[in-house]
Amino acid sequence: MASLLINALRKIHISTPQIRSSFLSSSAVCSNTLTITKKDWKYPPQYTKPREVWIENVDTVEEKKLGLFELHPLVYAATPRIDIIQRNVIWQRKFRWVSWAHTKTRAEVRGGGKKPWPQKGQGRARHGSIRSPLFRGGGVAHGPRSGKTHFYMLPFHLRIHGLTSTLSAKLAQDDLHVVKDLELPSDEPEYLIDLIESRNWGPSVLIVDDTDYAPRNLTVASDSLPHVNIMPVYGLNVYSMLKHDTLILTQSAAEKIEERILHYLHSDTKKQQAQFKLDQV
């Protein structure tokens, strides 16, 4: 790019010593200060290059780039499958849903013990109770009964690919950010609000760390903010990622997600899942 600009300036007869020196000085500064975190994966990418993201800071409202961080393309640059994401969302909404709608059968409705009219002789249809589903005020046939669960298990590979598809979509839409740590200098909610607004992190933020114990300043600052939630890395799921506009991962959380998903993508888990297999017939 620099050589093309210099050649263009030469054609219009403009001297270029100052411009050339400025280009050289800027590249030298970048090479001296920029750090790129290279990683040796157990399963290195074969056909695509690693994705690089900036490591950001949270100790100041002003954004600072602390370096580049490599992400595995099988986890963070997979082809987003909308159908798999939808199946994960439906599964997460149904497996915890218990329907408490309840209707009474003809045996549970009050009254109707006496036969309404004789079996024969009046030319009317034969009935044994006025609480039959054929009568108004009678019982309901095949109605909903309370305590019905809609639980079922989604296949394991669809759950894994749901995570990779959602993570890849978040990264492609610039809604996934990697921070060095979660150590805030203040526990005031205003600081966290200013931080989110200055970084353009959207109206709702999901923060994921690799441990259960978040820093105190972060928990106190986000306690009164319903649109900012904190989650450990083992609880990351498709529904929560789609529910929030921006996904914030710590550097250690991004590495742990990458390690676990790569392990399951390259291993045979049929024996491990056999004891948890449900008869859904």
From TrEMBL:
Stated name of the protein: Large ribosomal subunit protein uL4m
Compartments, record wording: Mitochondrion
Pfam hit, one: Ribosomal_L4
Entry's family note: Belongs to the universal ribosomal protein uL4 family.
Gene Ontology terms: biological process: translation
Alphabetized UniProt keyword annotations: Mitochondrion, Ribonucleoprotein, Ribosomal protein
GO molecular-function terms, A-Z: structural constituent of ribosome
Annotated GO CC locations: mitochondrial inner membrane; ribonucleoprotein complex; ribosome
InterPro entries associated with the record: Ribosomal_uL4, Ribosomal_uL4-like, Ribosomal_uL4_dom_sf
Span list, region Disordered: 109-129
Organism: Pieris brassicae
NCBIfam families registered for this protein in UniProt: rplD_bact
Source organism, top-level taxon: Eukaryota
